[in-house]
Amino acid sequence: MQTVKMVVTGPFNAGKTEFIRSVSEIDVVSTERKISSALERTVKEATTVAMDFGRITVDEDLVLYLFGTPGQKRFDFMWEILSEGMLGFIVLVDSTRPETFREARSILETFRAYAPTPYVVAANKQDKKDAWELEDMRLALRLDSKVKFLPCVATDRDSVKTVLLELLYSILAEMEGGEK
Amino acid sequence: MALRGNLRDFTITQLLNLINLARKTGTLIVEGPSETAQVSFRDGKLAYAQIGREDGGLASILYKANKLSAGQYRAIQQRAGSISDKELGLLLINAGYVTQEDILTNLQQHFTDIVQRLFTWVEGFFRFENDQLPPEDRINVRLDLENLIIEGSRQLREWEQLQDEIPSLDMALKFTDRPDANLRKVNLSVEEWRVVSYINPKNTIRQIANATKMNDLEIRRIVYGLLQAGLVEICRPEGAPPPPPARMFPTENKDEQKSLVNRLINRIRSL
Q: Residue A168, Cβ neighbours under 10 Å: how many?
């Protein structure tokens, strides 16, 4: 059996666990724990502390694993371990919480430093009425126009599929570009 | 128990605060990533500071502060021999080259600069040697620590923010290809121009910092400004050795790898 993996990363409460849950064929193996910080508890009750783990069986020989990183900075020692050998990564950003944009930018730069693999950035919670416009977010996140920046709703399977496909197209394009 | 530990657990600002509150006398020795600093205190006040092998002698400090000419500095180096800083200070005052205030102000500034450089050290070990005083021949000052502590807290916050923005100094910089990004229209400081002159995807930010003799905080501050102004962007350094090979694909064959990605695409589409 062959296995490949992709990593879903982003700041705290960006929607990484939901993203993986939407497409995983198994119940996501989650390492969520109750949040100890009162401030963070106002955002959500539990958070990922080690990783989330989802699976998509491609055929009898090939399985894709999706790993979700913990979003809080104090668990960042897990990031490098999870990034090892990844085909590519997705940076998920909460479109309704501009206070997390700077951290998203930092996470993106950290993962770019780990490995020169393709990546896409997804603006999650675009269905919420207070979500930022994509173009405004691109500027705030200082994303180059060449970086794929996609709208996303992590609870919607089609939306998640689009993000995964765009990352796979980038991986394919890079492989073809590398051959020239 | 001896005051010793790791800067990861106890910051320089916290150490200064403790020394200030406990009115300690002694020398704080900090072993940083590449050099060691010694900072001495009397009754909780900064008395003296020395970093690495830098020349912390009075003549050198006054020369760097343009209080002595190159000729005067050279003459002191040649003729003063083993004269102590205290004796040299008296000679210079009596000769009318500098005033007592010049000496004290410049020593205070020099020691303050050293402590401020320590604020950027986040890795390293420290120990406090009770009652160890600075060398006898050096002039001491008496500088309250409160302002330094406040400045240190400010720098720590700035440092944390800059680390978030620029987490790795092993990345390189390149000029953006935005048509409206024009360096000639921007007012840059001398330091910023020095950094700009080294911007090239082949140079890592760390190499630029070394070439321009800037510490981590200074280089991050300038790079952050250039990033915010949209003049540069971060990229992977060209020609750098690739990171340790991690097996992304279960096969080395390029055609099989492409086929694998196409199978993944088909499967995701069918979900």
A: 24
